[in-house]
Write a structure and sequence with these properties.
This protein has helices spanning about 15-25, 40-50, 65-75, 105-130, 155-175, 200-205, 215-225, 245; strands at about 5-10, 30-35, 55-60, 85-90, 135-140, 180-185, 190, 215, 235-240. By secondary structure, the protein is an alpha/beta fold. The protein has one domain: NAD(P)-binding Rossmann-like Domain (Rossmann fold), CATH 3.40.50.720. Strand 2, helix 2 (about 40-50) and strand 3 form a beta-alpha-beta unit. Helix 1 (about 15-25) crosses helix 7 (about 215-225), helix 3 runs parallel beside helix 4 and helix 4 (about 105-130) runs parallel beside helix 5 (about 155-175). The longest helix is centred in the middle third of the chain and has 27 residues, at about 105-130. It is globular, with a radius of gyration of 17 Å.
Length: about 250
């Protein structure tokens, strides 16, 4: 899908969806800057993605911090390289009852999910603006940005906000050949979700397609959305949930 000689940044990619996105991009020949807040996970993931002679550069740190954002940009464009793809995948989910939700939890979710994505997009777009071919930005939303989910008021509002950010940046970035979109995964089998031994059973029953998504399902959509085949798609949010948002049964 026209990925030759391209460079990508993917945040929150030590495992799960982010790691699979990196794997699929690298299989297409993309040089990847892989971020995770856990340094050991970032290093381990990068080592796993070195088999096909395409660089995978680990950058450990909090993707919500300006210092880490700067290091990711520097790693992506050390010399004459272009920055072609940025996927803001990192995010945190802090469940909590609305009446008891603390300011500390609220601002932490806002910092990582919103500020991290906003300022990474800003820094990347500044680089892409200078390039003849522009670039692609992709934000990781969620079905909880479309349907209410118990104990996820703060998280859900961040995901809805990311989709609005993608729409708004169409005005700012289209003239520079930068497209910007979001994808909204539903229930997905990852290392974290599979800690619940009943996860697959519960979500298989709730999902019209009969199973929760795999990381491969989500990553395949992400890779298409940042490919040249999707250059005329911008400001859109693609839901990947096996039909769950059409019926929206709750697991609670």
């Amino acid at each position: 899908m026209s990925f030759k000689n391209k460079t990508a940044i993917v945040t929150g990619a030590g495992q799960g969806i982010g790691f699979e996105i990196c794997r699929q991009l690298q299989a297409e020949g993309v040089r990847v800057v892989l971020n995770d807040i856990d340094a050991s996970l970032a290093e381990k993931a990068a080592r796993q993605l070195t088999d096909n002679n395409v660089a995978c550069i680990p950058v450990a740190g909090d993707s919500g911090s300006m210092e880490c954002i700067g290091r990711m940009i520097d790693a992506a464009v050390p010399d004459a390289n272009t920055l072609d793809i940025v996927i803001a995948n990192a995010g945190i989910t802090l469940f909590g009852d609305f009446f008891d939700y603390t300011p500390e939890a609220f601002y932490k979710v806002m910092q990582v999910n919103l500020a991290g994505t906003f300022f990474l997009a800003q820094a990347a777009a500044r680089k892409m603006k200078q390039q003849a071919n522009g670039g692609a930005l992709l934000f990781m939303s969620s079905v909880t940005g479309h349907q209410a989910h118990k104990n996820l008021a703060a998280y859900g509002m961040t995901k809805a906000a990311l989709e609005m950010l993608a729409k708004n940046l169409v005005i700012e970035l289209s003239q520079y050949k930068i497209n910007v979109n979001a994808i909204a995964p539903g229930a997905t089998q990852t290392e974290r979700t599979l800690e619940d031994k009943d996860y697959v059973k519960i979500w298989s029953g709730l999902t019209p397609m009969g199973r929760p998504a795999t990381t491969e399902d989500i990553a395949a959509t992400a890779v298409f959305m940042v490919s040249d085949k999707a250059k005329h798609i911008t400001g859109q949010s693609i839901i990947v949930d096996g039909g769950w948002t059409c019926v929206s049964p709750s697991p609670f």
